[in-house]
Amino acid sequence: MQSGNVSSSKSRKNLLIFYFLVSFAILGCAFGIFCYLYSENRICDKILFFHHEMFGISYSEKVSAVLFDSLKSNVVFLITAFILGFGALSQPVQALLIFIKGFSCGTVLISIYGNGLSGSDLPCIAAVFPGMFISLIVIIIAARESFFLSERLFRLCFTDRLADGLFLRVRTYAVRFSVYAAMLSVCSLIDCGLSIILSV
Predict the structure, then answer these.
(1) Over 70: is that where the pLDDT of 196 sits?
(2) How many C-beta atoms lie closer than 10 Å to residue 62's C-beta?
(3) How crowded is residue 161: how many other Cβ atoms within 10 Å of its Cβ?
């Protein structure tokens, strides 16, 4: 019975952290839309320029460029989330990372919908949305995993048990991030495949 209660408590905690990070993604998305709509502001201009340089994906480019840009965008977030997991006080930065990912998605979406939706926009939406949505969910799950390891390290700072099964936890952490990397590679392939199909 106690084991069942622990499992239920852990599942509830997993969901709470997931919803917490999703809320930051939504806030980031809303902020990205706001910046796009009011980009005459000099600060917003700089933010949008940085976003385009770091995370912009041009679906009109050749296949290799689309694949590289999509991978670059996703890998930057994944590696950052992985590294943040090794900081005992990095939870706020993990939330900020998801906010930035949401901002990235928001600017992409508003650039498509901003001037109204027409039939000519549908191929672009079909090319962008699936990979972007899946990659956002994967990054959120990765950030949640990073959040848990960071929390574990924080708790270890207040105990005499220096190891406390940490090696096994880090090994599992690395394996899970390898899986997330594979999933993001699939997202990039989806982006690439859709850009090929819809540009024909």
Answers:
(1) no
(2) 11
(3) 9
pLDDT average, residue stretch 156-173:
78
Q: Which amino acid is at 20?
A: F
Q: What is the DSSP string of 120-145?
A: GGHHHHHHHHHHHHHHHHHHHHHHHH
The pLDDT tens digits for 57-109 are 544 445 455 556 667 778 889 999 999 999 988 999 999 999 999 988 888 77
**Which residues, other chains included, contact 49 with Cβ-Cβ below 8 Å and sequence gap of 6+?**
none
164: left (phi over 0), alpha (psi -120 to 50) or beta: left
DSSP-H helix ranges across 85-119: 91-113
Chain center to CA of 155: 26
